[in-house]
Amino acid sequence: MNTFLLSSSLALSAAALLAPAMAQTTAASAAAPVTAAEPAAAPAADFEPGQRGRVDIGAGFSSLTGGNSNWNDEFVRGHVGLKPGTTLNWELSSQRHFDQRGTVGALSLTQTLSPWWYMSVGASSGSADFQNKYRGDIAIYRKWTESQQWVTGLALMKSASRDGIHRDTGITASVAYYSANDWVGEGGVVYNKSNPGSVEGYRGFAALTMGREKQHYFTARIDHGKEGYLPTGAIANGAGDQVGFQSTELSLQWRQWLGKDWGYLVGGQFYRNPYYNRKGLSAAVFFDF
Known about the structure:
Radius of gyration: 18 Å
Domain YaiO beta-barrel: 54-229
Keywords: Signal
Number of helices: 0
Helix content: under 10%
Shape: globular
Low-confidence stretches: 1-50
Largest sheet: 14 strands, antiparallel, barrel
Strand content: over 45%
InterPro entries: Beta-barrel_YaiO
Organism: Comamonas koreensis
Signal peptide: 1-23
């Protein structure tokens, strides 16, 4: 059965974008590489004096069970502050998943609207069957309390697969808390509808980031819930109908500065559904400018 999956955990949300201090791509494809993901808290559009941007260059490897081939990914991604209140995030990734090789590119723009509001818009496209032909995202964020430590977000996503059949629409609601003690906590829910068949899925996620800029960051993220379809090319060994199933994903990441403007990034990922498990490792070097 050649089906297609939108991984709801990759819907644009507060956990799918990072503040400029911890730049991240707007995860682009339905089967986008977890090697390129750095889950953390809601993006802030504030411009940091003396730091315009960051570039990550890295690779990842994942082993899959159930007769599926291993994944290999190479990526370059980053962000740049175009002006105070405006940040551009970008990514270019080469992915070999399910015996196919494809390239995906993504761009997103985070823009301050007022002292209390900011928004993000993004678009991406991939060349392989397991990637999206197109995906568009738009999100709005609101800061709360006098200290502005609480941030709520609402995001919308629309995508279409390259098979010309499968389409997805997603809505994400999130809330994040920025502690004065160098940690950020976030949680949210994702609703996704996959077509054909109007297959509905609900997922919940939580993320915790600890650390300080120019020192280190540790990030942990977990999400669980219902997905619509398996990715094109995935082997399910005839189990069930491969539609509307439960899955869980956990990711851990450490970003360490070795100098004022450079360092390394390492991460691990684990994902499972009723048909196969995936374990992955990723590594990158990064440069601030």
